[in-house]
Design goal:
This protein is an alpha/beta fold. The protein has three domains: 36-111; 144-197, no CATH class; 202-391, Rossmann fold. The protein contains twelve helices and twelve strands. The chain has helices at 2-17, 37-58, 71-77, 80-98, 113-128, 167-178, 212-216, 220-237, 273-284, 319-334, 348-361, 373-391, and strands at 102-105, 108-111, 144-156, 192-197, 202-209, 242-248, 252-254, 290-297, 303-305, 311-313, 337-344, 365-368. Strands 7-6-5-8-11-12 form a six-stranded mixed beta sheet, with helices on both faces. Helix 5 crosses helix 8 (220-237), helix 8 packs parallel to helix 12 (373-391) and helix 10 runs parallel beside helix 11 (348-361). 25% of the residues are buried.
């Protein structure tokens, strides 16, 4: 007992003399092999270094911080492969920053607009690579009409046409009619005007389900990939079109394209389609052209906004939630907004609910899964644009 008291006193004196030496650390050992004091001290130091390395790595918010890690010590404590992995991560972060794909802001990296475009283009290329080449197009339009892009062809002027007169052809028509001579006598039937391409504009809102089930089942990542691909498709090939993105779980919110790579469910329960339809309808009210909503979801509506303006959640869905959601569907229908739904591995209850939406709205429903979602959605969007053009011939 006297020896134990003296050891406790020694430990107390050492802690007071060296307060920053990690005295609070302790490790439990067990085994049948004896260990000398020096060997135990070396193992204790290695365990302390491992703890320090773990704390540093767990607190890293920026890949560039990995440059502060002692790579040689990591190699000693772990192995060559772990040290090499840390080096590669730090190098990759530096290369991305040098290429202009990421910016360091407030201690963390953020994607630049250049990176967002690159990711969207790559997602679009990956998804379109699966499609048949004859199903891809750029909205080729045989019919000419009023627009600002020249078609480099002409037509006789008709009443109501814009007076984009082709002088050469008009004078040539008059000379051919009169046989020549000056001055040239022009008549209305000599007038020939330049054709312009007819323009078709489409306004689209993509409603993206951000409920917990999307994350748990691994459906969120392919859905985000499709959203980025659709955004790239529209902005690159149809720059006159509009695309908005609305994410929804317990409530709905507008999502900017640059936020898509990092958007998550936030561990929020609820599938508030009613609020999402309302917000989408408000966004489309500011746009022109043919309007549509593309909804990607894996669950039936389980939330709505109550009379006080607060979100209400319940499962299974209450009658009030379903009725409020269908009321917004009717409002979209009255505004001429077509609703197309892509259901991911749908349950029977979801299928029945979506069938009610399609009956009320006249849109379409697609039963798909996370593996071929992109094929269906992008082909449908392209073909939908083709039908818009055909309808105006």
């Amino acid at each position: 007992m006297d020896l134990q008291w003296q050891m406790n006193q020694l430990a107390q004196n050492l802690q007071e003399a060296f307060p920053n030496s990690g005295w609070e650390q302790s490790y439990e050992f067990s085994g049948n092999d004896p260990m000398a004091m020096a060997e135990a001290q070396q193992i204790f130091e290695e365990l302390g270094d491992l703890d320090a390395l773990e704390r540093m790595l767990s607190s890293v918010t920026n890949p560039s911080s990995l440059a502060e890690v002692d790579i040689e010590r990591v190699r000693e404590l772990l192995d060559d492969q772990s040290a090499m992995s840390l080096e590669k991560i730090a190098e990759a972060a530096q290369q991305l920053e040098d290429a202009g794909y990421i910016d360091a802001k407030e201690g963390r990296y953020e994607l630049t607009p250049k990176a967002i475009r690159k990711i969207g283009q790559q997602a679009l290329a990956d998804l379109f690579r699966k499609l048949n080449t004859d199903r891809m197009g750029k909205h080729h339009l045989e019919r000419q009409g009023i627009g600002h892009e020249r078609d480099y062809s002409t037509k006789p002027h008709e009443f109501g046409d814009p007076f984009n007169l082709d002088i050469q052809r008009t004078v040539r028509n008059a000379i051919r009619r009169t046989g020549g001579g000056t001055p040239v006598d022009l008549l209305p039937e000599d007038f020939e005007i330049e054709r312009t391409e007819s323009l078709v504009r489409s306004s689209t809102v993509l409603m993206l389900d951000l409920s917990n089930s999307m994350m748990w089942t691994g459906r969120l990542l392919p859905a985000k990939k499709v959203a980025m691909a659709l955004h790239s498709l529209i902005t690159m090939q149809y720059p006159r079109d509009y695309i908005g993105i609305v994410g929804f779980n317990i409530v709905a919110r507008e999502i900017e394209p640059q936020q898509l790579p990092e958007v998550s469910t936030g561990y929020m329960q609820g599938t508030n389609m009613q609020h999402a339809f309302l917000l989408s309808r408000q966004l489309l009210a500011k746009q022109t052209g043919t309007k549509q909503i593309i909804m990607v979801t894996d669950g039936e509506p389980t939330a709505h906004i109550d009379r006080s303006g607060n979100p209400y959640f319940d499962y299974p869905p209450t009658r009030e939630t379903v009725e409020k959601t269908l009321k917004e569907v009717m409002a979209c229908t009255r505004d001429g907004i077509r609703i197309n739904t892509f259901m991911l591995d749908p349950e029977p209850a979801l299928s029945r609910f979506i069938e009610r939406i399609t009956e009320m709205n006249g849109g379409r429903a697609f039963f798909t899964n996370r593996d071929n979602l992109g094929d269906y959605l992008l082909v449908d969007f392209v073909e939908h644009r083709r039908r818009l053009v055909s309808a105006r011939r």
